[in-house]
Amino acid sequence: MANSVKNGENALEKHFLDRSARIGVVGLGYVGLPLAEAFAREGFTVTGFDIDEAKVRLLNEGKTYIRHILDARIAAIVDSGKFSASTDFSDAVDMDAILICVPTPLTRFREPDLKFIISTGEAIAPHLRAGQLVVLESTTWPGTTTEVLKPILEAGGLRSGDDFYLAYSPEREDPGNPDYGATTIPKVVGGDGEAALHLASTLYGQIVGQVVPVSSAATAEAVKLTENIFRAVNIALANELKLVYDRMGIDVWEVIDAAKTKPFGYMPFYPGPGLGGHCIPIDPFYLTWKAREHGISTRFIELAGEINTDMPRHVVRRLGDALDAQTGKGLNGARILLIGLAYKKNVDDTRESPSLTIIELMEERGAAVDYYDPYVAEIPMTREHAALAGRQSVGWSQETLASYDAAFICTDHDDVDYAELVAHSRLVVDTRNATRDVSAHRERIVKA
Question: Collapsing DSSP states into helix, strand and coil, what is residue 408?
Fold first, then answer.
């Protein structure tokens, strides 16, 4: 038995090294699609799995639905015969490695929601065969790979480490970042046993420059949470400093720009109108939930969450105060143009965007709100902001800008003309310091 297991491991390793292995990627979003593309470009035959038939159809036509991933990139791997997409999970039986890149949201009670991991495991399990490697990439609490996914995959009788191999490797995608992509970011890998660790490291070593092996899948899961908690906590500190310095009449942006000239002991983080994206607003709560199981209170993380969660209310209050000072009527009845709906600049990703919450808060106070975003033509359907779905971005013109009582900058896209925005707006409330280089009409700008 031991020899057959070792022979299976050696055979799989050989397929990874000579790139004859077939790779399945489950979940073709902002993480899964770039990963599938990376393996296809390196000569692997890749099948992308997704439950969204529209996405699958577009991909097989060589088209994309993610703005920063151009059609030409998808067409190249489709035309090469190295990539195809499917909604049929029975094809998983033909894969040598299956990489799971599905969402891990929170419930309305801010507890981990693993339904997509569970449903993916259940879809794969009937087609799992001996000699396959399964890797979870979705961000989750330490222990998920072995405590949740492993029992689902083993339900059919195959055993991790004996029949198939199970590992965890956290995604580290930064959508829209031109300097770092799927192949240039070091890949952390933890396995359910030494064989799984070795095989997963070998596989990822074919597409990335550096693989970082760790002692267990749970350790790798903790690495991902630590990275995002680090950012969440430091952004909370920057947000709190903004509140303090604002009361003192000090520009927090100037403070940060000066502080970051120190070549050691300081790393700049920036305040904003709230946290967005799938990682930073969500991931810390995966650890706080798991910590409670061990009788530990994560007070520092929870305090950071409170500060960041309150930022949309703070910036809306600042807008109301600025309008009251200018017009004497505050937000009630005001017409507001919100600039930037995406959660970060230069992408079309609206997941957890604070802009959606901010629109609702403004409208609760009686404002009429439109938005402009060159990347987001229409607000997509979301569970928490369903009433906003279908609204469309207004066109950009000097006349349009002048028709609003205030412009409110939520997302600092690079291709917005901020000088023109300030020149033709009555009031500009800037939560991102996007107007820092605008010299004319500075009296119209309020930083929030």
Answer: strand
Task: Let me know if domain 231-447 sits in CATH 3.40.50.300.
Answer: no
Cβ–Cβ under 8 Å, residues 322 and 330: no
279 is catalytic: yes
Tokens coding 445: 């700008």
Give tens-digit pLDDT for 277-307.
777 788 888 999 999 999 999 999 999 999 9
CATH number of 2-215: 3.40.50.720
Among 100, 279, 342, 434, the one annotated catalytic: 279
Chain-centroid distance, C-alpha 244: 29
C-beta separation of 159 from 122 below 8 A: no
Q: Name the strand (E) or helix (H) holding 285.
A: helix 283-293
DSSP three-state, residue 133: strand
**CATH 3.40.50.720: which residues of the chain?**
2-215, 231-447
Interhelix angle 299-327/354-364, nearest 10 degrees: 50
Q: How far apart are CA 410 and CA 360, in angstroms?
A: 14
**Rounded to an integer, what distance in angstroms lies between the CA atom of residue 275 and that of residue 271?**
9
Q: Looking at residue 241, what is its pLDDT?
A: 97
Whole-angstrom distance, CA of residue 276 vs CA of residue 113: 18
Helices (H), ranges, 93-216: 115-124, 144, 150-154, 194-204
Measured CA to CA, the distance from residue 267 to residue 245 in angstroms comes to 19
